[in-house]
């Protein structure tokens, strides 16, 4: 019989050895008191990432996705006397009939073929710097300098160097090689502009490669050297598989840069010539919008350029992933 004023005895299921509530009883009591608050806290934790991401998602939707959809919709309208009127696929049919746009598409194919060169140059230089081969200090000191120059400045510099009577042809003349019309020959002008673009932009890709090298396991490289692996074998079997994700990023960003960042060089060095041989979709869009005042046709060309970048980028990623699994 309990004494007056003493606490009631604990339930046997919840009482500890001393008669006080045990751990199970304490947890049950805490759950009874704070259950709703605990559930609310878990719900807030689950919603917190979405709340934090909401501003960025809204910015992307407002400034990226909506203008893209607006441009695609605008490509199905007319220009001139049919301004704003739906014309279906007429703009796309006109693009396919335009020889300048077909040349621009052919040059896109040329860029895809030259992409391995644009990726290999910074990749090899980053490898030399990482392996500390002779001359790596020189490359480390000067590799990023061209990336800080404006494309207009780069184009003006190479216009002087590559002129028909410029320093490069003068040097070739001393070697007994005739002068080359680097920017006036339709067969080589596009190669010249792409080469200048690679020289001016490979510094950014090299920085990405150097960051990727910092994630490699040094023990794998040491083991390969101990086994007598040559430099080409080390690059093929150790470095390239270890940099697969870095390589995917560099390939895609380099391709996008070649398709969308060569306008300044094209405008300064060739203005789309000679004979339209250096047209790219980006330059074609500017001509239609800025000079011919045909925004609907320019929107159609922009849509085609977007689809090309999407397809090429996804195809490159798929090929790189497959080659990474095979290696």
What would a concise description of this structure say?
The chain is mainly α and 327 residues long. It is built from 13 helices and no strands.
Give a structural overview.
- The protein is an all-alpha fold and 327 residues long.
- The chain folds into two domains: 45 residues, no CATH class; 238 residues, MetI-like fold.
- 71% of the residues lie in helices and 0% in strands.
- It is flat, with a radius of gyration of 32 Å.
Determine the N-to-C terminus distance. Answer: 82 Å
How much helix is in the residues? over 70%
Report the CATH C-level class of the largest domain. Answer: Mainly Alpha
> What proportion strand?
under 5%
Low-confidence stretches: 10-19, 29-35
Kindly report the average pLDDT value.
84
Q: What is the ordering of alpha helices and beta strands?
A: HHHHHHHHHHHHH
The largest β sheet comes out as: none
What is the gyration radius calculated from CA atoms? Answer: 32 Å
Number of strands: 0
Task: Note the total helix count.
Answer: 13
Q: What is the global morphology?
A: flat
| CATH architectural designation of the largest domain | Orthogonal Bundle
Query: What structural category characterises the helix and strand content?
Result: mainly alpha
Relevant CATH superfamily of the largest domain? MetI-like
The figure for the number of domains is 2
**CATH topology type of the largest domain:** MetI-like fold
């Amino acid at each position: 019989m309990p004494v007056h004023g003493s606490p009631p005895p604990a339930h046997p299921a919840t009482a500890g050895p001393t008669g006080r509530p045990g751990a199970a009883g304490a947890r049950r009591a805490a759950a009874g008191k704070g259950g709703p608050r605990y559930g609310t806290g878990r719900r807030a934790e689950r919603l917190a990432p979405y709340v934090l991401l909401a501003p960025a998602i809204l910015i992307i939707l407002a400034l990226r996705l909506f203008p893209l959809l607006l441009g695609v919709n605008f490509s199905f309208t007319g220009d001139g006397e049919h301004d704003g009127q739906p014309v279906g696929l007429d703009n796309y049919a006109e693009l396919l009939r335009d020889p300048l746009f077909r040349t621009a598409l052919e040059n896109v194919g040329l860029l895809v073929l030259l992409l391995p060169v644009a990726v290999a140059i910074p990749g090899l230089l980053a490898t030399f710097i990482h392996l500390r081969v002779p001359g790596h200090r020189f490359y480390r000191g000067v590799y990023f300098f061209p990336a800080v120059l404006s494309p207009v400045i780069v184009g003006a510099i190479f216009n002087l160097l590559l002129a028909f009577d410029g320093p490069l042809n003068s040097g070739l003349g001393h070697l007994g090689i005739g002068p080359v019309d680097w920017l006036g020959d339709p067969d080589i002008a596009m190669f010249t502009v792409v080469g200048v673009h690679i020289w001016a932009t490979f510094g950014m890709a090299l920085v990405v490669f150097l960051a990727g090298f910092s994630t490699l396991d040094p023990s794998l490289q040491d083991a390969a050297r101990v086994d007598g692996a040559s430099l080409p074998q080390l690059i093929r079997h150790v470095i390239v598989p270890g940099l697969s994700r870095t390589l995917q990023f560099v390939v895609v960003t380099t391709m996008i840069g070649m398709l969308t960042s060569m306008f300044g060089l094209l405008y300064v060095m060739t203005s789309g010539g000679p004979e339209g041989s250096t047209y790219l979709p980006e330059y074609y869009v500017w001509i239609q919008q800025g000079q011919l005042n045909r925004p609907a046709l320019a929107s159609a060309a922009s849509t085609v350029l977007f689809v090309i970048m999407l397809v090429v980028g996804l195809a490159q990623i798929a090929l790189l992933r497959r080659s990474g699994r095979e290696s």
